[in-house]
Amino acid sequence: MNALIISAILGVIMMFSGILLKQKSGVRGIAIGGLVLVLLSNVLEMNGTHFFNVNLHGMMEFDHFSLLFVSVIIGAMLFYFILSARDMEKVGGYYAEYFALLFFILCGIVLVTSFKSLLILFLGIEIISIPLYILTGSDKRNLKSNEASLKYLLTGSFSTGLMLMGIALIYGATGTFDVAKMKLGLSEQPELLAIAGMLLLLFSMSFKVSAAPFHFWTPDVYDGAPTVFTAFMATIVKAAVFIGFIRLFGDTFGGMAPKWQFWVAVLAAATLFIGNITAVFQQSVKRMLAYSSIAQAGFMLLALFAMNQDAREGILLYSVAYSLATIGIFAVLGRMNDYTFEGFNGLARRQPLVAAVLTICLLSLAGIPLTAGFLAKFYMLKAAMAAGTQFWLVIFAVLMAAVSVYYYFRVIQAMYFKEGEANVTVSAGFKTALVVLAALIIVLGVAPELILYWLYF
Amino acid sequence: MNITQILFWLLSVTALFGAMMVVTSRNPVYSVLWLILTFFSISGHYILLNAQFLAIVNIIVYAGAIMVLFLFVIMLMNLNKNAEPTRGRWIKFAGAISGGCLLLVLVAALRSTEVSSKSVQVGVGEIGLIKNLGRELFTNYVVPFEISSILFLSAMIGAVVIGKKD
């Protein structure tokens, strides 16, 4: 609750800071300071300090898992602000408003991770989506950005419609929005109305996390949106919606697991296949990262499939590993002139440190040992094994992870083994943040307990 | 068959016919007009369920504000010609099959549902009256009600960011 209210207030403060402050560095300072405040308040809430006592009528539950996840997300967002906030200036003239929208998205993230009522889930998803439509189209002079925004709005509204229909059907079947009171899957006769609602919710949530075959919007939107906002969409938002997805299917539809588990496995396999195979053929690194985010969503779907304790640990670690690595890559990519693979040629010669950090991020995404990405993938596979059925999915996932090595290493190869003129201008602060990011990826790859410990604290 | 039942069937036929015409009309302006008819007949259903507030909001907001917006957009974009883009046969085929599948699932789900045991009290129910609705909204549902203000605020910021001249 602390994080929700404080970030909503901060959103309003950011709106006014745009009028009151002339310097952009001031706005940025308020945003970063405010985010630290949100992080602190959330950590305090984990220790039992509640600033606000609101009667929630059982609509939200701030349990340990959701609070820890929100802390992790805010941490990733802090990295994102430090690394990429400067690049937002280049997008358009509404610097403070962009921050306001990002803080509102953070509110949506808190709602989605801690909902106990489908009403709150719907509100959370919408509070995340609507600012994203705007941020996608924020580069108003760029035709590609406009197109991406319109496409995202239309397909996103359609999937929201499906979601609303699903919630309505479930309300019709159970007579309540409250997850705790639904008790689906307990009766003997099949609850067909609830199953139809569940299917619609499965489709719409798959759309929101861009799982195949609902992924068609992803490459165009990620490619067309300004790179800074693509970084935000592809990492923080995606991880948060995944937690909502898992909570929805674990809590609400947990009793009906035999009915959907197989189809989630098929969904995961299709997502892994399409994401990885299509990423191989991309020429632009930004587009490759869009497909890679689809492929990584396939791995995260394994947690939804398994839905056990390993999966809860795994999804947490996966969110951190994936978000940190992708934020790092996008932060550098946003400063490059040429987004193709050739654009990275010879980067290691001019910027050895940046190239090294990029390499660590890419290795983590590919799942090479000693990085956080390896352990995250390992936990996911372990969870899927522990689920006891569909072993083919585990083998398939390993094969697809091997495919992913190809396109991640193409960037590394371009940086180190090809001659070229690639260069980026980076400040000392940016470099420090990058080094901290890379260090965190390696530390979490060696000692994941640092995060997972808090789950049982 | 008493008057309520006659009204119910009349409104249902109008709503379904209107909805069919929305989809099949070639001219987008006609589609919008048919949609308004559909909304009016759905409002009639709300009144039959004794939900007067919902009925009037449905007319004011949907049939009034949103449909006028639709008409403006269609007229501004000059879509009132029969400028429907032609799509490939396979797309139409796939669309028909997947839409049909959804229809099948929904019909199967609704057919086997026992509505009679759980139905809202028709005619005598006071749940849709504005007094009860307001009390619910500001007691049990006050948290989502307040949270939706964040949604509207972000939409307003978005309108400014997208719409204002640089």
Short key terms for the protein model shown above:
heterodimer; A: 457 residues; mainly alpha; 19 helices; globular; B: 166 residues; Four Helix Bundle (Hemerythrin (Met), subunit A); 6 helices
Short synopsis of the structure:
The complex is a heterodimer of chains A (457) and B (166). Chain A has 457 residues and is mainly alpha-helical.
Characterise this structure:
The complex is a heterodimer of chains A (457) and B (166). Chain A is mostly helical. Chain A is 75% helix and 0% strand. Chain B has helices spanning 3-24, 28-48, 52-76, 89-111, 130-138, 142-163.
Q: Pick out the low-confidence regions of chain B.
A: none
Low-confidence stretches of chain A: none
The biggest beta sheet of chain A reads:
none
The name of the CATH topology of the largest domain in chain B is Four Helix Bundle (Hemerythrin (Met), subunit A)
Strands of chain A, count: 0
What about the largest sheet of chain B? none
CATH H-tier superfamily of the largest domain in chain B: NADH-ubiquinone/plastoquinone oxidoreductase chain 6, subunit NuoJ
Name the beta content range of chain A: under 5%
Describe the secondary-structure layout.
The complex is a heterodimer of chains A (457) and B (166).
Chain A (H helix, E strand, L loop, with lengths): L1 H19 L3 H23 L17 H21 L10 H19 L4 H19 L6 H32 L4 H4 L9 H17 L8 H8 L2 H26 L4 H24 L4 H22 L2 H25 L13 H4 L1 H15 L5 H15 L4 H27 L10 H19 L2 H4 L5
Chain B lengths: L2 H22 L3 H21 L3 H25 L12 H23 L18 H9 L3 H22 L3
Helix pairs in contact in B: 1-2, 2-3
